Amino acid sequence: xxxxxxxxxxxxxxxxxxxxxxxxxxxxxxxxxxxxxxxxxxxxxxxxxxxxxxxxxxxxxxxxxxxxxxxxxxxxxxxxxxxxxxxxxxxxxxxxxxxxxxxxxxxxxxxxxxxxxxxxxxxxxxxxxxxxxxxxxxxxxxxxxxxxxxxxxxxxxxxxxxxxxxxxxxxxxxxxxxxxxxxxxxxxxxxxxxxxxxxxxxxxxxxxxxxxxxxxxxxxxxxxxxxxxxxxxxxxxxxxxxxxxxxxxxxxxxxxxxxxxxxxxxxxxxxxxxxxxxxxxxxxxxxxxxxxxxxxxxxxxxxxxxxxxxxxxxxxxxxxxxxxxxxxxxxxxxxxxxxxxxxxxxxxxxxxxxxxxxxxxxxxxxxxxxxxxxxxxxxxxxxxxxxxxx
Length: 390
Description:
Elements: H1 6-10, E1 17-21, H2 24-34, E2 43-47, E3 55-56, E4 66-70, E5 72-73, E6 84-88, H3 98-106, E7 113-117, E8 132-133, E9 139-143, H4 146-155, E10 156-157, E11 163-168, E12 197-200, E13 204-208, E14 222-228, H5 233-239, E15 251-254, H6 258-261, H7 264-273, E16 279-282, H8 288-295, E17 318-321, H9 331-346, E18 354-358, E19 377-381, H10 384-389
Parallel strand pairs: 1-2, 2-4, 3-5, 4-6, 6-7, 7-9, 8-10, 9-11, 11-14, 12-15, 15-16, 16-17, 17-18, 18-19
Antiparallel strand pairs: 12-13, 13-14
Helix pairs in contact: 8-9
């Protein structure tokens, strides 16, 4: 289809928003015609097909507030006053430098949304340590090397309510991303009665909002999401207490297969630090180490009689097995007996209030009679095929 720009040229000054997906030649032709007259343009979204090459447009947009560019560059030194910025797929030479990027942040104090993906950024050896305040930021998305993410997070401050989505090949500890810690998690003025939920997975770690539903996949209910192309659970658990207070966690979710990745000692050290944990949700996992640790003392495994100060997670009240949409096969055969032992041991000093089985295979009321001696409430949420029969 041929692109005609004559009519647009006559009315360019009236345009306030442009959103186009064009081949490079057509993009160049369009802005050669209308570019000099876009004085009132406030929103610009430009994207070229992935099979094409990066292009640079020598254009100036004095009224621009929302900018989204995919493989398209503009004069970066002129960018300022933005509320939304999204940059993706820019190669070295056309990509803004780190200094230009920080200048955009500094000249856009009301920035609300920031998205940076697949950029050829080079972190300089020497950088200013002055922090740029982005008090209005509510969404930050970065997909890049850990060094780039770290350099950006080290130079900006954002409100505790800001949602972070970070993706990197994380092969080191969490300090490689958060050199100043996770400030929005460690705010001293946060409500002390808020539930703080942490979800651990093989390739991800999520901090959920206080009002998040169990096992929620809704991005709106996630405060911080860190995903990695490499398995992340070991470096995360090895360094997690260096970036925020584990004692703040009240709800913990262990996603499928997490316990297969970590040693008993690493798991024990983590559970020792989560001293205020109240609710533990566990998806399909090997429960051997977890139930053994929860049943025994926190400090010296050889101690026979546990005291409240020695018991791991002494505030733990709710132990929930199963994840929405999954069936946990052979649960009774593999885990019911060690679970009874765990509940019995904890009943001496820190009894569990609720144990819930969500679609756990072959769990029926008769199998839970022994558990009822040590737990206040047993909840059985049936498997899918049992619901259909009923």
